[in-house]
Amino acid sequence: MPGGWFVNADLIVANSPELEIRLQELRVSGIVERARDSDDRFADLASTRRFLADLEKNERDQPLTLAEDLEVLGSSGLKNVSAFWLDTASW
Predict the structure, then answer these.
(1) Which of 10, 36, 38, 68 could anchor a disulfide with 64, C-beta 3.0 to 4.6 Å?
(2) How many Cα atoms within 13 Å fall on the side-chain side of residue 43?
(3) Distance between CA atoms of residues 13 and 67, nearest Å
(4) 43 Cβ contact list (under 8 Å, min separation 6)
(5) At 69, is the secondary structure helix, strand, or coil?
(6) 23, HSE (Cβ side, Cα atoms, 13 Å)
(7) pLDDT, tens only, 34-77
């Protein structure tokens, strides 16, 4: 639709391995903090990390960096591709 919007709620990875490790630590601890009392899969850090690793493996999820994600969108013909919001609530 000309003039329409496409909203991509994709997960991305950090540009550096060191930053990605820290972001994943924050992600996992945030999940545990929010869900430990209501979902046994997220009872602690180890079980949460196992759940996420299995999910990513089974779904063959291969998140890209933000720059790579924007490049894919732009190369598909979308105009004015940009990130105007990042959810950093768990950072």
Answers:
(1) 68
(2) 3
(3) 10
(4) 32, 36
(5) helix
(6) 14
(7) 998 899 999 999 999 999 999 989 998 888 999 999 999 999 99
Question: pLDDT-derived band of residue 18, with 50, 70 and 90 as boundaries?
Answer: very high
Length of the chain, in residues: 91
Q: Are 63 and 10 in contact (CB under 8 A)?
A: yes
Report percent pLDDT > 90 for the chain: 49
- The predicted model scores a pTM of 0.68
CB 69 within 8 A of CB 82: no
Residue with tokens 């639709």: 1
Q: Which residues contact 52 (CB under 8 A, 6 or more apart)?
A: 27, 28, 31
